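Q: Please design a sequence for this.
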């Protein structure tokens, strides 16, 4: 190995050092510019998977667990299903109330017809009694 190093000139050593320096500088510049992208990918993956809760030395929760995207979607799906069930029950209750209102409306219409018949009957009675001859009444006085 020492014989191989004897054959290397100073120009070659300087060339190797410049090449290594250029490689390190280029690698540093590349990493400096791409590090935010890698950090963003890492943040995205943390958000996607979620994070477990962080405990302190004493065992208390320092940071609560954060659900991942899939778990959050599942939670929202359950909430949507619950709201849809509640909405369906509300629509059924509204339909029941509408049916009851129509039923009461029909009863009121029937009562209106019955009242009209009764009025007509009372008018007929009044008309017939007016046509009857008038009988004079004699009041009796009771004697003491």
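A: Design:
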């Amino acid at each position: 190995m020492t014989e191989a190093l004897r054959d290397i000139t100073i120009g070659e050593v300087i060339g190797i050092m410049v090449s290594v320096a250029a490689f390190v500088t280029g690698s540093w510049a590349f990493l400096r510019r791409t590090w935010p992208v890698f950090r963003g990918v890492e943040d995205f993956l943390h958000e996607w998977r979620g994070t477990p809760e962080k405990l302190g030395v004493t065992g208390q929760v320092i940071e609560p667990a954060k659900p991942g995207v899939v778990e959050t979607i599942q939670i929202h799906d359950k909430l949507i299903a619950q709201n849809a069930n509640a909405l369906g029950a509300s629509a059924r209750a509204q339909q029941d109330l509408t049916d009851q209102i129509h039923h009461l409306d029909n009863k009121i219409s029937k009562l209106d017809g019955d009242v009209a018949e009764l009025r007509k009957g009372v008018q007929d009675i009044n008309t017939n009694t007016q046509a009857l001859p008038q009988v004079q009444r004699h009041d009796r006085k009771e004697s003491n």
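Q: Thanks. Anything notable?
A: Residues 1-53 form one domain. The first strand starts at residue 50 and ends at 51.
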